[in-house]
Amino acid sequence: MAECGGLHSSTSRHTMDKSITLPPDEIFRNLENAKRFAIDIGGSLTKLAYYSTVQHKVAKVRSFDHTAKEATGDELYEISVQEEVTARLHFIKFENAYIETCLDFVKDHLVNTDTKVIKATGGGAHKFKELIERKLGLRVDKEDEMTCLIKGCNFVLRNIPHEAFVYAKHADSEFRFQTTQPDIFPYLLVNIGSGVSIVKVESEDKFERIGGSSIGGGTFWGLGALLTKTKRFDELLQLASKGQHTSVDMLVKDIYGGSYGSLGLTGDLIASSFGKSATADKGFSKEDMAKSLLHMISNDIGQLACLYAKLHNLSQVYFGGFFIRGHPVTMHTITYSINFFTKGEVQALFLRHEGYLGAIGAFLKGAEEDNPNQYSWGENYAGSSGLMSVSPDMNPMQRARSGTFDMLEMDRLERKLVNLPLLQDASSYIPDTVDLAEDALAREYWLYCFEEALDGVVKRALASQPDMPEAAERAEKFRQKYRHKLQTLRHQPFAYGSLTVRSLLDTREHCLNEFNFPDPYSKIKQRENDTALKYYQKAVKSLEELSWEERQFALVRGVLAGNVFDWGAKAVSDVLESDPEFGFEQAKRQLEERPWLVDTYDQWFERLKGPPHKCALFFVDNSGVDIILGVMPFVRELLSRGTEVVLASNSSPALNDVTNGELQILTESIAALDPVIQAALTEDRLTLVQSGSSSPCLDLSRLDKVLAMVVRERKTDLVIIEGMGRAIHTNYYAMLSCESLKMAVIKNSWLADRLGGKLFSVVFKYEVPAAGPDSPALTPS
Amino acid sequence: MAFNGHQREDENIDGDETPTKQPRSDKEMPDNEAAAPAGSDTSDRRTSNSTARLRSDSVKKTRPPFPWFGMDIGGTLVKLVYFEPKDITAEEEQEEVENLKSIRRYLTSNTAYGKTGIRDVHLELKDLTLCGRTGNLHFIRFPTHDLPAFLQMGRNKHFSSLHTTLCATGGGAYKFESDFRTMADLQLHKLDELDCLIRGVLYIDSVVSSGPSECYYFENPTDPDRCIQKPYTLENPYPLLLVNIGSGVSILAVYSESNYKRVTGTSLGGGTFLGLCCLLTGCSTFEEAIEMASQGESTRVDKLVQDIYGGNYERFGLPGWAVASSFGNMMSKDKRESVSKEDLARATLVTITNNIGSITRMCALNENIERVVFVGNFLRVNTLSMKLLAYAMDYWSKGQLKALFLQHEGYFGAVGALLELLHPS
């Protein structure tokens, strides 16, 4: 059975704690515009969900009309900060004891809502129905619990990368996050509430309860309370984590003296749970009994789950319910059981947002007319608490407190995100090169690095809004928020799924946006773009004077030298800060001489002697010198060869990366100076698309749908990825089904050291997929 | 030659003969089985019924000396079967050594041994012909923790002087092998428990002809008023799922006497029932626990579907009376204080029994088998569990699965061990 409804009886005597004061900046945010409420009331926790619109500032660029008078200087474009409204989902989890306080708070802050109904699910929904209706003045509309659970599960699996994880108690990183599969169905959901429900999910709307068991969380709790006189579920788990089950259980070796060899049953296997307690004249410790009970129940559930998985031929098995809910102890015993019964063929999977599934599902039921499933959603790292470790070693009271208000916020993305069609195997694609959760040394370094860089970011953010007096206060709030996130990640690297350089960067961007610093680098980008553009024609001219061979190499060097200009890298930003005149030529001199750290230039050069590519997709990196003097000449050469080019840039700002908006203006300006670019634009051989991303890194499994369409239509046969964030921190090992070129300069000495190079080492990685019928053969010279 | 009441000289001959059938380490077993499964089976059966003189001679030659025991040393109980020859001739009587006679008299004239040994008189099989001898088969049990007392008795009665082969199965045959040697000077012939179990089941079912049918089922299991025990004929038994509920549970898929596999098992078995009952109620014996359970009400302890949904959970076809959470009501302090020991015993019994039923049903589906035979001492004096299992199989499979039970519940392993003594496979 799925219901947690059985639990409220035991918590009913908790007194309503009204003394708690709620920090409105942090929880129940954006209530002013909230609509579409849903609530999931479990045995001990309430989950409230609502949809709201968030108004925040976005940086926009607009081209000056140079014929008109408004052009004040040499600037190409003006930057304006505008208000934008985006949709956000809020989920807040708190103890049932605070429900009344929370409902009051919600009522007080609810301003513009025409909502009449609140969707409700969970066993406690019935009990609190009257209270909710009275406090909020909304009609409670009850939804089937299992339907909500499955809807919520589908939603998180589809929208949150690294939602599912495997638990490995003794591994370096306990949580091993799974790559999101392109197709999440079919799967088995084993929900362990007071009883167990086993549900087979075949599609968005098709699921079936194929079985269950009455031996579940309620059995552990109820029987445990009888045996140990311990009342709380958490305390029972804590007891269990300290006990020795072998004093209570009869093991195979207790019967056989050793193993039962012919059946392959080892001596330590439990032959009979509680088999040794069948005596009146012996006492057993609470810890030992609790441990034995935990094993008995976990093994039993695991066994049934395996039998059902086998019968229905399913290999994706997710576990949820209050018995699991982030408890390392139960995740471990369930994992152990599944491994034992399937001999490792099936892995037990757990979900990061398992506790929210019912609330998410209930919300989705009520929001069907908004078609939430038509959009892509992204977890907002700034507003979400992340997965908390509920280590049994912590004081249970403390734990209850720290878990009092847990939040999940999800932003509706403007665009539907899809896989790059050119990924060799979308199901095994992992964007990130290093998992910092598993690599303790790397984790330490990068956390330190981001903390060190924080002052600079704050300073930059302030500088971007000189006319706003309250900016200082917001900047300080940003600093605190991001520092807090870093501290959380230091202790719980698994909080937001795999910890990676990308997630650290993205978290920073989310935090900046949260405090209305949409584009701290806007002015720097503007200045650098203006400057670089002045040198464009000269650069093109000097390239044209070279022989074909020389030019090909010079173009690559140009891209690499341009890529040195990166405010995201400390080594470079220090230089740029102290020497604003630091130029393209100086950057070229900084570059490593060939042979580079990774050097397949010769193969690339040979390839260029062959027929032109049909179409190249170029993921660009920084503004200024990088895009204008490095990338554009390279693109120009490709166009001249007869290759169409698609330039993919960020949809929204991240560091000094060029955004799609900026690139539009830049390209037009360049076109005005360069007939080759002009012609390509006119003839639609040069196209600009947005990547759908606002990260300095690149996840090829979450790209704008339009980009994917263009890539397909143009029969793209070359993918170029530039820069450290996109080609080294991510995608270094990405396998594509067409030719690919990854170019980056390593602007971080620690990383350079790791890779066996030094500062400003060059990665030039040209790859051709293993020979298939479509892959072009290299033309011999 | 190898008569039952042999003299010293005979023993030497006996000693020369037995090795050919005895040295059978576990590793050799599969070969033996694969070599002659069907053949040896039929010839065994025929010899036991044969009266031809020639055969009789050959039977005499291979017949082991008395006493004939089969033993199954489980985690909780030791099961002992003893064949008491009733066709002893005057000549034999005279030759019979005193120690043997004393053992025979002790076992057959008592129904209880020491504080805990019990002979299940109602199970005794009379006038059984085994290996050309006619007699009664006795079924005796005592707790495994009293094995030392048993060994002491064996020592006092000079059991070792009889130089019999003691065929034993169950984990205890391995665990206590050295105790048998050191304490009672007895050499065990160890046998695989699942081999013995299957052999025992098939044999007992084939020889029981008079009295209540060995195999039975419950008619109308879903209707308590019309639910009655009915005999069942286990001809063409294959394939069948054999569920042995001892301290733990083993589930076997049996395709023929020698072709079977252990599908799975669970640690939630009879030992769990008794272990939890002892902790929850302070009882100390299985009989007490069962007695308490029969007087209790599990619905006070368990949370039912109707406790949560007010009735059936229609969307998933769950009836209101189904248990949603075993011991689920015990999450509440008030309810913990209001239940009786009997209620707790009953809930424990129902929980364990339903769980076994549930796992069994899944195995039956996965193995595509429709007949399930439940054996093991958990079912002794436990009609409650048998009816529950019968009900669960029938209800959840919509009548597809049939639950079968056997009169000699927990003794099949021991019978199999005895058969191994008489007809080595």
UniProtKB/TrEMBL annotation, chain A:
Phosphoprotein recorded as keyword: yes
Cofactor: Mn(2+); Ni(2+)
Location of the Damage-control phosphatase ARMT1-like metal-binding domain: 449-758
Presence of keyword Membrane: no
Catalytic function, reaction form: (R)-4'-phosphopantetheine sulfonate + H2O = (R)-pantetheine sulfonate + phosphate; (R)-4'-phosphopantetheine + H2O = (R)-pantetheine + phosphate; (R)-4'-phospho-S-sulfopantetheine + H2O = (R)-S-sulfopantetheine + phosphate
GO cellular component: cytosol; nucleus
Places the protein is found: Cytoplasm
Keywords: Acetylation, ATP-binding, Coenzyme A biosynthesis, Cytoplasm, Hydrolase, Manganese, Metal-binding, Nickel, Nitration, Nucleotide-binding, Phosphoprotein
CDD domains: ASKHA_NBD_PanK-II_Pank4
MF-aspect GO terms: ATP binding; hydrolase activity; metal ion binding; pantothenate kinase activity
Superkingdom assignment: Eukaryota
Gene3D superfamilies: 3.30.420.40, 3.30.420.510, AF1104-like (1.20.1700.10), Uncharacterised protein PF01937, DUF89, domain 2 (1.10.285.20), Uncharacterised protein PF01937, DUF89, domain 3 (3.40.50.10880)
GO biological process, one term: coenzyme A biosynthetic process
Self-association state and partner proteins as the record states: Homodimer. Interacts with PKM.
Membership in a protein family: Belongs to the type II pantothenate kinase family.
Biological role stated in the UniProt entry: Phosphatase which shows a preference for 4'-phosphopantetheine and its oxidatively damaged forms (sulfonate or S-sulfonate), providing strong indirect evidence that the phosphatase activity pre-empts damage in the coenzyme A (CoA) pathway. Hydrolyzing excess 4'-phosphopantetheine could constitute a directed overflow mechanism to prevent its oxidation to the S-sulfonate, sulfonate, or other forms. Hydrolyzing 4'-phosphopantetheine sulfonate or S-sulfonate would forestall their conversion to inactive forms of CoA and acyl carrier protein.
This protein's name: 4'-phosphopantetheine phosphatase
From TrEMBL, chain B:
The entry's keywords: ATP-binding, Coenzyme A biosynthesis, Cytoplasm, Kinase, Nucleotide-binding, Phosphoprotein, Transferase
Chemical reaction(s) catalysed: (R)-pantothenate + ATP = (R)-4'-phosphopantothenate + ADP + H(+)
GO MF annotations in UniProt: ATP binding; pantothenate kinase activity
Gene3D superfamilies to which the protein is assigned, alphabetical: 3.30.420.40, 3.30.420.510
Residue span of region Disordered: 1-60
EC number: 2.7.1.33
Locations listed in the record: Cytoplasm
Residue stretches of biased makeup (Basic and acidic residues): 1-10
PANTHER family: PANTOTHENATE KINASE, PANTOTHENATE KINASE 2, MITOCHONDRIAL
NCBIfam families according to UniProt: panK_eukar (TIGR00555)
Quaternary data: Homodimer.
Family: Belongs to the type II pantothenate kinase family.
Stated name of the protein: pantothenate kinase
Originating organism: Zoarces viviparus
